[in-house]
Amino acid sequence: MLIFKKTNETIEFRRQQMNISIGFVPTMGALHEGHLNLVKISLKENDFTYVSIFVNPLQFNDKKDLEKYPKNTDRDIKLLESIGTNALFLPSFEEVYNSSVQYDEINLDDWNSILEGQKRQGHFEGVIKAVSILFKIIMPHRAYFGLKDYQQVKIIEQLVIDKGYPIEIVSCSTVREQDGLAMSSRNAVLSPDAKKSAPKIYQWLLKAKKMYHSGRSVEEIKATIIREINDEKHFQLDYFEIRDAHDLSEIKSREQKTVALIAVFLDGIRLIDNIELT
Ligand code: AMP
Question: Do 204 and 108 fall within a single domain?
């Protein structure tokens, strides 16, 4: 596996790759099967796959969250090598933000008034800055993102459309532990007790789906699930919403494709998950 730490060297190498398809998987490291699944899909669909590991400080609205964020680069490198990743881009903050490559911005007003955008002010601005720079350096034909970060996928799709990047965004299903917990780098910092309670998050989503299919109203489902979350002493609710699957707006009819989205704090660690209801 090639490892690049310098932006200019990466750009130079990439410019020489002609007539082959390039896949790209941006990550913040502390890799797990959810990340590796994206890389495996990219390896299948492209001639050459880049992965980046960059813990982007600009997308952390909470400094403590950034400090607590797990890091294990040696292990990440071994994992990526073991599945045949072609190249890893491992830049420092300066290589991303003080290089010749400029970030792009898009209008995030609508996204910032709901869900992750509302709860984590400045988060998506940070994501868009880093991802637009990474896209310009790697110039992939396809970029792979996990549906676990549902709103993020929608916003990246908007970035590509608004800026006219010739990149196909491929959204990939959420990979779960056997007990249903969505894999996340943050799971590594859960206490053993918290880890035991964490599968409840997916159980609430499954329950919401079951209720939706038995004809219960969105209000009824929300009230039931929110009550159950509030009854669990280790959990603190951030939001539980049922939204339109395309633009995450409020549901107006049962004809709409819908998704249930949840964010909770479990012993102080913020976890998110979602499930498509239809
Ligand atoms: P992160 O390192 O958290 O920035 O995640 C990098 C990419 O991996 C993002 O596109 C995430 O949505 C995706 N990802 C993280 N966890 C999972 C998971 N459990 N299943 C599928 N994709 C995931």
Answer: no
Looking at the CA of residue 182, tell me the nearest atom of ligand 1.
19
Distance in angstroms (rounded) separating the CA atoms of residues 163 and 104 = 8
Instruction: Provide the residue-wise pLDDT of the chain in tens; the chain has 278 residues.
Output: 999 999 999 999 999 999 999 999 999 999 999 999 999 999 999 999 999 999 999 999 899 999 999 999 999 999 999 999 999 999 999 999 999 999 999 999 999 999 999 999 999 999 999 999 999 999 999 999 999 999 999 999 999 999 999 999 999 999 999 999 999 999 999 999 999 999 999 999 999 999 999 999 999 999 999 999 999 999 999 999 999 999 999 999 999 999 999 999 998 999 999 999 99
Residue 231 sits in a domain whose CATH number is 3.30.1300.10
What's the 182 CA to ligand 1 centre distance in angstroms? 10
The answer to whether residue 179 sits within a structural domain is no
Distance 228 CA to ligand 1 centre (A): 27
Q: Catalytic residues, which ones?
A: 35
Q: Does the beta carbon of 24 sit less than 6 angstroms from any atom of ligand 1?
A: no
β pairing state of 258-266 and 2-4: unpaired
**Prediction pTM value:** 0.98
Q: Is the CB of 27 under 6 A from ligand 1?
A: yes
Same domain as 87, residue 38: yes
Which residue's alpha carbon is at the smallest distance from atom 13 of ligand 1?
Answer: 146
DSSP 32-74: -HHHHHHHHHHHHH-SEEEEEE---GGG-SSHHHHHH----HH
* CATH number, residue 32: 3.40.50.620
